[in-house]
Amino acid sequence: MSLEERLARRALRMTKVSGADTPAVYTSLESEWRAMTSGAALLDLSWRRSLCVRGTDAREYLHGQTTADVKALASGGGVPALALTAQGRVTALLDLYFHGPFAMRAGLWRRLAPAVPLPGFRAGDPDQDGLGVTMAGAEAAADPSASYEDEADDHGDLFEIRVNAADLERVAERLGRFVVADDVDFAIDAPVCEAGSDSAAAGMPARAGAPGQTASDPASETTEVSESRERGTGPDGPGAVAADSEAGSAPAPATAGTPEREGDVAKATSAGVGAAVRGAGVQGAGVRGAGVQGPGPAPERTTIGVAGPKAAEVLGRAGFSEVAAESCVADLARSWFVRDGSIGGIDVTVFGRGDLWVPIFELVVERESAEALWSVLEDAGCVAAGHDAYEVVRVESAAPRWGQDVDDATIAIEAGLEWAIHFDKGCYVGQEVIERAVSRGRVNYRLSLLEARAEVEPGSVVVAAGGQALSDAARQRSAVRSVVCSPGRGPICLAYLPVDVAHPGTPCRIAGPAGDIDATVAPWPRQQ
Questions:
Q1: pTM higher than 0.85 for the full model?
Q2: Cα Rg, the chain, nearest whole Å
Q3: Are residues 192 and 85 in the same domain?
């Protein structure tokens, strides 16, 4: 029985999260919330996905495309980050991790399965050289003889970006937008690696000409597709602002399963990256430079979450030896990090996150091993918790979700996302607007956490704050976003308020179907 089937049978109610069916509640919201806030909760996070980034220019490129100080990341480190438009508006919320240089993962490469050409590919066409597109859908034999320690010229850095599944295509489009001549490759949901094993998959296919790969080897062939790009679309080029203003508006592919094309060539623009993600019925397609590489129709990996004050302790009890439990508690439980290891003989990659007010660890595992890993973690003391409990803790933590609390009309400072911005890092897309907003206080609204006296419907409007009725313009912006009923705090919600009343203790009124509901602005969690 698969993990999905097992959890569906146990759940009292299922819900759809970021396109994935996941349990909403198993027993009761209160008991599962208490497990997450005072013990160790076990979560189905199959709606979380990965975008891997590698290349000799990967560090420099991500440093300029996100708000994170990527240059300062050490191997095994992680950081929250944002991708912004030139106007400082949020296009993606990212958890960004650095696995390390290629040389540190020597011997972990898996040779490619025979490549599947994209429709319209013309073999041997010199105009299609330079943009590799690979779909390695089948299992490929490992190459234990491969060794790359002496191939310094082909080494680079390997990063992994964790996002919600519904955001994956948009993130790939945004991060691929400004690649011109950079040595940067992307891959979606690459296989999990086996720590320390010479025969494991590192999660990224080898490029044509990479060590261990020859042109005459049919198992290591890649399909090459290319298109010349306009230099003016770079982050400092004249097309940058226009491209940002049109984020998310790329045309859909001309036909189902076929990337958008210009002539017979797959487009390497941001729209082309998204089309590659959608195209040919796969979750990811490999694109050298401005694109993505991925394994096939269904993700090879899935994600299990362990969250709560005792989460690190339970991981140690379950046998996760790469990071001792006491080390997690002391240094890592509230921060971003990545470690490879095993639990109960099952290979896992563990990602630490610090966006919630309780520690949370994402365990990425081969899908076929997920059910066994879930059993090991339950035996170690985890309590299964549904998505309802997760959502309560997320809103209590004022951790916004893209598309619900934040969108591409939101300036990062308005959403209280300063904790994901490294102000001293140097230039990045959107920096000028962010610096102006901070130095001059030039934002009109702030995302606020409200404690209500009664349950609030999503989409309800804050009509008054601080004893004053809000203007029509403010009411249009102050619609309630995320809404939950916390077993510990009662009804709480996130809403944007005019900045002059977005202070703890400010009384508010929310228009409800049965009359106005009194509410109070609560302290912003990251200010407590």
A1: no
A2: 23
A3: yes
